[in-house]
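ARCHIVE RECORD
Type: protein–small molecule complex
Small molecule: protoporphyrin IX containing FE
Source of inputs: curated submission
Record status: active
Notes field left blank by submitter.
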Amino acid sequence: MDIFTIVREWPLTIPLVLFISCIFLYTLKSNKSSLVVPPSPPKLPIIGNLHQLLGKPRHEALWQLSKEYGPVMQIHIGSKQFLIISSPAMAKQILKTQDHIFCSREHFQATKRLTYNFVDIAFSPHSSHWREMRKLLVSEFMGPKRAKLSNHVLVTEMESIIRSLSRHPSNTEVNLSKMFLEIVKQVVCKVAFGKNYREQPIKGPSWDVMLDEAMELLNGSVGDSFPFLGFFIDQFSGWNGRLNDGFSNLDAYIDAIIDDHLKHNTEDISEEDKDFVHTVLDMSSKENASGYRLNHADIKALAMDILTGGIDTTVVTLIWAMSEIIRNTRVMNKLQSEIRNCTGIIERVDELDTTKMTYLKMVVKETLRLHTPAPLLIPHVSLSHTQIAGYDVSPSMAVLINAWGIARDPSVWGENAAEFYPERFENVDGDFGRDRFEMLPFGGGRRSCPAMNTAPANVGVVIANLLYWFDWELPNGMKCEELNMEDGGTLVLGKKVPLCLVPTKHKWEDSYSAIN
Ligand code: HEM
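STRUCTURE (tokenized, with ligand):
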């Protein structure tokens, strides 16, 4: 039937079209209502469940709600919906069984700006661009060549720390939180950028302030959940201004690093001496085997991921590890005798030495369990409609996995879940995030942390060196149970109060006779 026939017969056609549309709308509505939606706490108009998340850290509030509404729960914050996952079995569904569906990322204003429009790895949607960038980071930043350099830089840095601690006035405390930040910054910057750019004359605030601000901004803004009203709140509360300044300062910092590298012809630098930025600049001059070519924004976004993803997480792990070790004398003694027995008298403890230290690995694992650095990981996002535990999940649903709660759950870890007890990992096989899901410090599936092997190894080297050379005590006769263990932060959970301990150089003569 052509258009003229339809026009000629319109008195009949219009009611027919209306009738079919009604049936179509009715079917759509009834299909929609036949969706099985995950349980959700009662919500208020406009704000949704926001009021139930106020007054305590987000991961704790969500964990409490999950006790009532189950391991698959839905919450609403303004216009946004989130699926909240709170058990190992459901985490396995998201990160393994249906990893191909839940492998994208959420769009927030700050992530858009700080990642040069999502061209980084951590916040990029699932795409061939993300795959190429991740492959590049794994092969060029974490591959064997750079890992060798990283180990060398770390051990050299530890030697200088040991020397400076040895000269430290006796019976006086050292701020380990500050020291760990310096160590990690030094290693990450040396490997990525060739040197620690902290002395670089760059306008704007200091390195640490810039990074802290970036981490704060990555938490998101009111406008992310309340598009219309939120826009005005962000504007008038000064959040938009903070984002502009925060981004401009970091961008200028990264630009200065890249410009510094561009001053030298990389052909004059030996492969051995090239840092990560040299390598990616080289790569940006030609297409790779899959026809992919890096541009300037990609390089900056990679630098941004390294700065925001690689430093804070490692620093907080070191701080929590030493805090737990000092609070648990039994663990400290056992760990020190393993480290000292494994090595005997040597000049330094390097990564190869630590591979033999099974108890050290358990201590690092137990730290990452009890103090999961990123309590809700980075939100995963579904690419299409699917079902989880019989509940329908719509496309583009943001998923928060409560890794913090799962890792502390007594129904998963037993009665002593809250205790620091590294021995629980004896005879536990398989990798967390790949084969097991009872703890997820590095997330899981294809969006898992690419540093899931290298980061714990680096933490082990630092701890082994500190415990090999020194005996440690709490300052001013403080008792173990008096150490403040409060945490704080949203994206990364740090120790609220800096960790200060008193080192005493270990008397090797005594223990050497004990060893032999
Ligand atoms: C103890 C140290 C570290 C911890 C606990 C940690 C933790 C995490 C977590 C929880 C995620 C999100 C995983 C998910 O959403 O499923 C992640 C992603 C990521 N991490 Fe780490 N991380 C650490 C060190 C590092 C380091 C040293 C780097 C190096 C630059 C790094 C780079 C990244 C990147 C690029 C991603 C995004 C991966 C993607 O989306 O494909 N992390 N990390």
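CURATOR ANNOTATION: The first helix runs from residue 3 to 8.
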